[in-house]
Design goal:
heterodimer; A: about 240 residues; alpha/beta; six-stranded mixed β-sheet; four-stranded antiparallel β-sheet; 10 helices; B: about 400 residues; mainly alpha; ABC transporter involved in vitamin B12 uptake, BtuC; 2 domains; 16 helices; globular; disordered N terminus; disordered C terminus; transmembrane (chain B); ABC_transp_permease (chain B); LivM-like (chain B); cell membrane (chain B); transmembrane helix (chain B)
Chain lengths: ~240, ~400
Amino acid sequence: MSMLEVNNLEVRYGRIRAIEKLDLTVERGEIVTLIGANGAGKTTTMRAIAGLLAASRGSIRFEDRDITKLKAYKRVPLGISLVPEGRGIFGSMTVMENLDMGTYSRSGKKADSELDRVFELFPRLAERRTQAGGTMSGGEQQMLAIARALMARPDMLLLDEPSMGLAPQFIRQIFRIIKEINAQGTTVLLVEQNANQALAIANHALVLESGRITKTGTGRELLADPSIKEAYLGVA
Amino acid sequence: MSNHSPLGSVGATQTAIGEELADVTKKHKRTAALRQWWNDRSRLQQWLMLLVVVALAYLLPVINPPLITTEPANDFAISCFNMALYALVALGLNVVVGQAGLLDLGYIGFFAVGAYVAALWTSSDSTFVHIPYLATLPLAMIVTVVFGIALGLPTLRLRGDYLAIVTLGFGEIIRLLATIIPGLKGNTGFQNLGRPPGTNADGEALFTASNGLPWYWLVVTIIIIVAVLLGNLERSRVGRAWIAIREDEDAAEIMGVPTFNFKLAAFGTGAAIGGLAGALMGGQVGFVNNQKFDVPTSILFLAAVVLGGRGNKVGVILGGAIVAYIPLRFTELAAYKYLIFGIVLVLLMIFRPQGLFPAKAHLLTYGSRIRRWVKKEQAPAQPEGGPPPGSAPPAPGGSTAQSTRRARKET
């Protein structure tokens, strides 16, 4: 049984079909990457899996449970955490308060070990724990967004374009941390435009074009694929 | 800790940017000097000062300070009642607008429902079963909550401007219903509403339309109770959920916050307080008809919240009082009050968009867990070899040590 099984998924914005006939499986412990151009439906896919968008057709199963109709907030305690595109930091809350919001779905339970874990991954956040989230740089906000999602102790982390708008050296660090998080046992579904680095760390990868999956393979296979090279890696 | 950090090197290059940002946040800090001073007082000092302020608030109409007084044009005690009433309305609207960040332009609708509940169940013109006036206060709250949920259920899926437009329509619908439905008597209205029991030494009724003093004390007492209850709510999971929704609704949802339910809760809570204020208004004036519940008054309520500072209870109480006070004190300006408040709001948006008394820049008040975290992380962080103490850019709330002290004090 796969951890996440998306079958024949269709999501619409009014009359416009953003994704259709989308099949996707993620095995426990993997890093799976979804690459594609602007408007291909990557973010739509992620928001549908997280529950922020309703599926008009198809099904989403997580840990062998049908979650297609489940509200987003009820998917968090099941172990699905989304790091949304644009980070979604609570700007007037401090770093600590943002992290505390991350534990909202686990009310009452101690979260000290999670806190230690994210501070080890992101020492920068420990330094800035009383700073308002809205006053931090883009890279720090991205760290905070990932850390906040980890506070919910997810089994599966959905990362929507974590490298967007970051400086190149920051992007490399973020990818290194994603690998580290995965190595610690969290399954990762990663959406990226930054295909090169995303494919390099992915066990499996899918290419999304105009709302449909057009190619699948291991990260390595797709990295070597000439048509992928041309379309997404900027190599002629 | 930073030694085995994958982000160690990047951290250093980010420091410069961080310092720049800290400078920006310092601007907000300047305005928080008073709060800093307040936080430096001991718990006992804070309570004593609060006690003095509350006592002064109660005595305000008795002292009837010259220059501040609204006499001879308006009886000062009744003016004080109106100020307190607006403060209560602002307190309720603040839950919706300030805490949960839902723009409600039709809040007057709840106020109207409350006033009509008091009228229908106590007025001599009403054919309803009559109940004691004080019983209409909780009844008004219950009825307005029903109205609030009835409005919220279909509309709270909307966001931003759409919600504002729908609520604007709701306010007008309530006013028009009062005009159209024969049982609500339109312009004729209801007279002789009930009032709280009690007589003075001469055997005259304590609560009358001409004597504002007992009414004022009643409303101030209610404000204190409501403010304390709301304060507790704000520090609970409910309050945190509201703030998260205000900041980013989608992000709140994926933290596991049932955003729709909490928006509905904010709407219901706000509605109940609006209804309570409406019933109090009906009781004091003794007369309710369809003329008082127009859209401009609804906007005035919103102006009180924005003026006082969205999200800050004390701020919006003062904002409400100011909005009610200005036209009562400067009667020659009363006809221009919308012009004046319009200009004031425009200036406010330019120079002080967070309101006269902004909400705390960051909270730290809630969650013993956070206090524990801050303390716990503070202790081992100091002796560690990591970054030298001076290298870390200052957090907006002053040094981290200061923040810890403040956090500890708030236990």
